[in-house]
Structures are given as structure tokens and as C-alpha cells.
């Protein structure tokens, strides 16, 4: 199973068209060239404030998604960013996500526990995890707990199987079963048949 851990844009200025990562760089270059060609470099105070907000958001989103990717190791993909063009013609990252593998390791609860611990760390790696991040972390914790129960059941089964091999009764030292003396089989107390019969008669009298 693959989940997305994501940073969503909170309360930014009204959106301009949002571009995917590859197209965003092209838009940035074209926007800069267009601004230079037309000479429209003057920005209103509102536009400058919007640009500053976009810059802060861009920095936060990149740091957030990179934290997920770095902590997720082999289970996490590369950050995927969505962009918004600012009044200056530049594109700024306003949201993003990282795909992370949250599936159990089939038939190996110990490996599942280790994997889910990594997934949880990755989900909570940013300084301000999103609601989706916390949801993924909770799911990883639940699967880790299930794997721990499976591991305990396996250990109990193994211990029971090992103990079952030692349940055959062992005669105490000094007592011989089937021991023969003078060619006669002895009973469980090592007595000859005649002795056993005599003792039996004595007890019955």
C-alpha cells in the first residue's frame, strides 16, 4: 500500500493557475522574460506582500517534503510539488506530497515492525506534521502493533513445540524397566516375578 504524506497550502493569497513542477520552471523563465520585455517591474504593496508570503510558503513546503523523503529512506519517493505563479512572474511551491510505502512485509512480522517504525518517523519528520501526516503515522503504529502480536504468537508456538518434545516420561535413576536377572524379566521395582507374587500375597493377608 502506498500513502501520500503532504503539505497543503494554508491561507495564501488568491490563487493564480497552479503548475506542476516541470511546467513551473518554464513558466518562471517565461514570466521573468515577459516582465523584462514589457518593463512592468513596478509592484503594488499588496503584490509585494503576496510575493513575500509565497516565498515563505515555498521554503516551508520544500523543507516539509524533504524531511519526509529523507526520513522515509527506501520506502519514500521523491517530493512532488505544486506551484503557484506570483505577481513577479515567478513560480512558488505552495503544496506537495511524498509517496510512502505503508504495506506490511508478507510473512515477516519483525521486518514489518522495523518498516512501520521508519514510516512513522517519516510521517512525523517535519516540524509541523499535517493532518494527513498524522493519519499515516497512526496507521503505521497500528500495523506495527499487529505485527508485534503476530511475533509473540509465533514465539509462543515455537516454545510450545520445543516443550512438547520433552514430555515423554523418563524412568527414575536406579529403576530398570525390562531389566533381566538370571534370565527372568523384572518388574518396575527390579523384583523378580516370584518376589513380586510373594509380596502381593503378603499384602493381601
Characterize the largest beta sheet: strand count, sense, and whether it forms a barrel: 4 strands, antiparallel
Overall mean pLDDT? 77
Q: In the residues, how many domains can be counted? A: 1
Secondary structure: number of strands: 6
The helix count comes to 5
What do these coordinates show?
The protein is rod-shaped, with a radius of gyration of 38 Å. Helices cover about 50% and strands about 15% of the residues. About 25% of the residues are buried. The chain has one domain. The chain is built from five helices and six strands. The protein has helices at about 20-40, 45-70, 110-125, 130-165, 195-205; strands at about 1-5, 20, 80-85, 90-100, 180, 185. It has about 200 residues and is α+β, with helices and mostly antiparallel strands. Helix 2 (about 45-70) runs antiparallel to helix 3 (about 110-125) and helix 3 (about 110-125) packs antiparallel against helix 4 (about 130-165). The strands form two sheets. The protein has a four-stranded antiparallel β-sheet. A two-stranded antiparallel sheet has the order 5-6. A hairpin with a 2-residue loop joins strand 5 (about 180) and strand 6.
Topology:
Elements: E1 2-7, E2 18-20, H1 21-38, H2 45-72, E3 80-85, E4 91-101, H3 109-123, H4 131-164, E5 180-181, E6 184-185, H5 193-204
Antiparallel strand pairs: 1-4, 2-3, 3-4, 5-6
Give a brief outline of the structure.
With 205 residues, the protein is of the alpha+beta class. The chain has helices spanning 21-38, 45-72, 109-123, 131-164, 193-204; strands spanning 2-7, 18-20, 80-85, 91-101, 180-181, 184-185. Helix 3 runs antiparallel to helix 4 (131-164).
Amino acid at each position: 500500500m502506498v500513502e501520500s504524506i503532504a503539505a497543503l497550502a494554508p491561507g495564501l493569497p488568491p490563487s493564480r493557475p497552479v503548475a506542476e513542477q516541470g511546467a513551473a520552471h518554464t513558466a518562471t523563465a517565461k514570466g521573468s522574460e515577459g516582465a523584462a520585455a514589457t518593463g512592468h517591474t513596478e509592484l503594488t504593496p499588496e503584490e509585494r506582500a503576496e510575493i513575500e508570503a509565497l516565498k515563505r510558503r515555498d521554503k516551508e513546503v520544500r523543507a516539509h517534503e524533504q524531511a519526509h523523503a529523507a526520513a522515509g529512506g527506501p520506502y519514500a519517493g521523491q517530493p512532488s510539488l505544486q506551484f503557484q505563479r506570483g505577481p513577479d512572474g515567478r513560480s512558488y511551491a505552495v503544496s506537495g506530497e511524498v509517496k510512502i510505502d505503508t504495506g506490511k512485509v508478507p510473512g515477516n512480522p519483525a521486518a514489518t515492525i522495523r518498516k512501520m517504525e521508519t514510516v512513522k518517523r517519516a510521517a512525523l519528520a517535519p516540524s509541523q506534521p499535517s493532518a494527513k501526516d498524522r493519519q499515516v503515522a497512526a496507521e503505521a503504529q497500528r500495523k506495527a502493533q499487529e505485527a508485534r502480536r503476530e511475533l509473540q504468537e509465533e514465539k509462543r508456538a515455537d516454545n510450545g513445540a520445543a516443550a512438547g518434545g520433552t514430555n515423554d516420561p523418563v524412568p527414575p535413576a536406579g529403576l530398570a524397566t525390562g531389566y533381566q536377572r538370571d534370565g527372568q524379566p523384572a518388574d518396575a521395582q527390579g523384583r523378580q516375578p516370584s518376589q513380586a507374587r510373594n509380596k502381593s500375597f503378603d499384602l493381601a493377608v
